[in-house]
Amino acid sequence: MVGRLCGEMACHRRDGEPSLGPEMLDETPLSAQMQRVAGRAGAVMGACGRLERLWQQGSAKAMLPRMHGRAPEVVFLNTAGGLTGGDRLDYRLEVGAGAHVVGTTQTAERAYRSGGGVARVETRLVVGRGARLHWLPQEVILFEGAGLERLLVAEMAGDAELVVLETLVLGRAAMGERLRDLRLTDRREVIRDGRPAIVEAIRLGPDDLTRAGTAGLNGAVAVATLSLFARDAADRLARLRAVLPGDGPVRAAASGWDGRVVARFMAAEAFPLRRAVARAVATLTDGPLPRVWQI
Amino acid sequence: MQDADLLKLVQWLSPGFPVSSYAYSHGLETEIAEGRVTSARDVADWVGAVLEAGAGRSDAILMLAALRGEAEADALTDLARALAGSRERLEETEAQGRALALTLAALGEGDGVARPYPVALGLAARGLDLPEETVVRLYLQAFAGTLVSAAVRFVPLGQAEGQGILAALHPVIGRVAAEAIVAGLDGIGTGVFGADLAAMAHEDLEVRIFRT
């Protein structure tokens, strides 16, 4: 599958491709004195998956391990080991026409007790014509008292393929931690051909952690959304549904409409959710999981 | 004019207004069918959660944005569509919005353009001389009433029991309305993972009474 669109034609940049724009050259130095963590990292992968540009600043790193014939993987890492109030992290990944790239994170991102203010994490993805980007970061773990604002914006060409996974883990389940205090806003936007295709905006506060009934978290400590945007998305819905857990510790369901498939997961334990999500990702992407994942 | 306008709004939001609101359960049918919602208490919790942290609050914000002209109608339409988290959620807001716009146009109100329900209602309410607190509270009460009515028919519950649930939700409606008024479009966000999953799972239910 890798490189299936990387013929002679696709390897030339074309007009109208979502821009690998000059605004990226504007890397205003961050005034880091006031911040415990500030980092920005990104990569531009040209047509056929060749690295065109890579930048990293502060605690953010972007790496491209050797993939030995597999689709290139861009691995992002926050070397500060976690986030707290006032921290700022920016990731950007652009995929040129016809290329197939996997993006992920080296480890789970940890949001610690805020200590005042919120940590902000912004991820920008750009997927060019006929390109495929599978954005499969590891989970975000929220600690007691965390304050976190996340924003993911993905701009894709209409004929591109984009897979986006987002997993949130509330508390350190292995330690039996149950969160009581938390402030999270987590907005994921996919813009296809210039129009919003999906906006998933999650907003969690202390009330949501204790809300009665089954409409809310209802005791879940891990939730995930896995989305696919592709021309042939509808064809993959049945296969995805077939691998979703039925009974058991993970509640999951999927829907498909308007050139996208969305699956959601929730569970009272993180580990079974991670396993169910991995299975769904492998099915939906029809390929291997990112190498840095440890399932 | 306020009295006449209040009557108009109550008419548009009444269960008898032909938008087929009785046909949509917002995923509640799944919860009832699978035994997660079985009592008046469960229904009150479920509907309360959806009001506070789900489509109740989000749609109220969208409706207010349309009412205030905070953004272009087309941009709000795109946003409302993009916020629909599953196929049936999109159908629920689009089909009811289309029916609302068509019926209003037949009454000589509005442009008849099909838009998602909260956007269509907010645009129509622009012409009413009513405080936005009133519009948003009645909007939320109508939404809650639709869900409670679905539960009364399908759990089933007694009619008076259903009205008791709705009456007990009045403080929640007031609180969510007050929040929606200050939130703005950037304040949209939800945390009803169970309800969202239920809406998706509804597509796969073998026996379905409701469209969503």
Overview of this structure, please?
The complex is a heterodimer of chains A (295) and B (212). By secondary structure, chain A is mostly beta strands. Chain A has one domain. Chain A is 11% helix and 42% strand. Chain A contains three helices and 17 strands. In chain A, strands 3, 4, 6, 7, 9, 10, 12, 15, 16 and 17 form a ten-stranded mixed sheet that branches. In chain A, helix 2 runs antiparallel to helix 3. The longest helix of chain A has 16 residues. With 212 residues, chain B is mainly α. Chain B has one domain: Urease accessory protein UreF (Orthogonal Bundle), CATH 1.10.4190. In chain B, helix 3 crosses helix 4, helix 3 packs antiparallel against helix 8 and helix 6 runs parallel beside helix 7. Chain B is globular, with a radius of gyration of 16 Å. Classes of the chains: A mainly beta (295), B mainly alpha (212). The interface between A and B is large, with 39 and 39 residues.
Secondary-structure blueprint:
The complex is a heterodimer of chains A (295) and B (212).
Chain A: E1 38-45, E2 51-58, E3 60-63, E4 73-78, E5 88-95, E6 100-105, E7 109-111, E8 119-127, E9 132-135, E10 140-142, E11 146-156, E12 161-170, E13 182-192, E14 195-204, H1 206-210, E15 222-229, H2 233-243, E16 250-257, E17 260-267, H3 270-285
Helix pairs in contact in A: 2-3
Chain B: H1 2-13, H2 28-33, H3 40-53, H4 55-68, H5 73-83, H6 87-106, H7 117-125, H8 132-154, H9 159-168, H10 170-183, H11 193-201
Per the principal axes of the C-alpha atoms, what is the gross shape of chain A?
globular
> Structural class of the helices, strands and pairings of chain B?
mainly alpha
Rounded to an integer in angstroms, the radius of gyration calculated over CA atoms of chain A is: 19 Å
Oligomer: heterodimer
Intertermini distance of chain A: 24 Å
In short:
The complex is a heterodimer of chains A (about 300) and B (about 210). Chain A has about 300 residues and is mostly beta strands.
